[in-house]
Amino acid sequence: MAQLAESLELFAAMSRLPDTQLDVMVLRRLCGFTPAKVSDLLGIPLAAVRSNERHAERFLEDTIELPDFGGTAS
């Protein structure tokens, strides 16, 4: 039950992200794509992927306690 509550809290917080940050977080953290692959899929520069990911992480860290996604640093 606690896992479900954490997931719902994460998804609720993620739904408040701007569109590009949400797209980046879904592709990076939930689908496990590399920054380069996300850049290709979204048609945005690699630097923009990294920036959007950082901003989204900061927002989520300020909003909720993020679960450990493990092994997604690339």
Automatic annotation (TrEMBL):
<dbReference type="InterPro" id="IPR013249">
    <property type="entry name" value="RNA_pol_sigma70_r4_t2"/>
</dbReference>
<keyword id="KW-0731">Sigma factor</keyword>
<feature type="domain" description="RNA polymerase sigma factor 70 region 4 type 2">
    <location>
        <begin position="9"/>
        <end position="56"/>
    </location>
</feature>
<keyword id="KW-0804">Transcription</keyword>
<dbReference type="InterPro" id="IPR036388">
    <property type="entry name" value="WH-like_DNA-bd_sf"/>
</dbReference>
<keyword id="KW-0805">Transcription regulation</keyword>
<protein>
    <submittedName>
        <fullName>Sigma factor-like helix-turn-helix DNA-binding protein</fullName>
    </submittedName>
</protein>
<comment type="similarity">
    <text>Belongs to the sigma-70 factor family. ECF subfamily.</text>
</comment>
<dbReference type="InterPro" id="IPR013324">
    <property type="entry name" value="RNA_pol_sigma_r3/r4-like"/>
</dbReference>
<dbReference type="Pfam" id="PF08281">
    <property type="entry name" value="Sigma70_r4_2"/>
</dbReference>
